[in-house]
Amino acid sequence: MPSTAHGQATPGRPRSESARIAVLHAVDDMLVEQGYAAMTMKGIAERAGVGRQTVYRWWSTKAEILLEASTSDAAHELDVEPQARPADDLLAFLEALTTFLTTSPAGLAYRALLGEAQHDTAVRDLVRAADLVGTATSAVLARVRPHAPAMPTPPLAAAQLAGPVVAVILETGNPLTPAQLADHTGLLLGAWTAGPPR
User: CB–CB of 94/144 below 8 Å?
Assistant: First the structure.
């Protein structure tokens, strides 16, 4: 039995891999050309050259398609090689996150989903379950934690690391500069090393 992007079994025939790829490419293209709000399941099917029944057999909403289109790319693009120094590890991740959010089709999809999640609880639940950025953030934090005894709990540390980068891009459309990323890294590592002031 085929499964969804989140591993849930779905009824029906197994997916045609070529049709699946066509649908995923279609949503990427349409997101750039039309924006999330203008996309429809009918339009996605037409753009992919498949029947609407085919699309609905595998996905319930355009958000599910967009999330699947971004998941594997996000995992690859945010997986940074461990660095020799903790500061370099954090900075490499922030640079990868910035590139992902500003130049990658998967990052554009993720940004669209974050926006939609602000007023659609079903999309919010999808984004939360997939945790595209959180998984990669946790990996780099786990490597740095032994060198940062004052690092807070994982959810707060992840928010401190990735939150400002994501927020600035969502609010302004522009990334932090390389110098700002380096400053952010230094401030975090300094606080996580020294602990709070007495």
Answer: no
CA distances from 158 to 75, 99, 170 (A): 16, 18, 17
Are 61 and 127 within 8 A, CB to CB? no
Is the CB of residue 26 less than 8 Å from the CB of residue 47?
yes
- The size of the chain, in residues, is 198
Terminal CA-CA length for the chain: 59
Phi, psi values for residue 150, rounded to 5°: -100, 10
* Token reading at 30: 């349409």
Tell me which amino acid residue 111 is. R
pLDDT score recorded for residue 16: 83
* Residue carrying the six token digits 């996309």: 39
Angle ∠(72,73,78) on CA atoms, nearest 5: 105
Q: Which two tokens stand for residue 85?
A: 């120094």
For residue 106, give the DSSP letter: H
Mean pLDDT, consecutive 10-residue stretches, the chain (198 aa), reads: 44 70 91 90 94 91 92 89 95 97 92 92 93 91 96 95 96 96 96 72
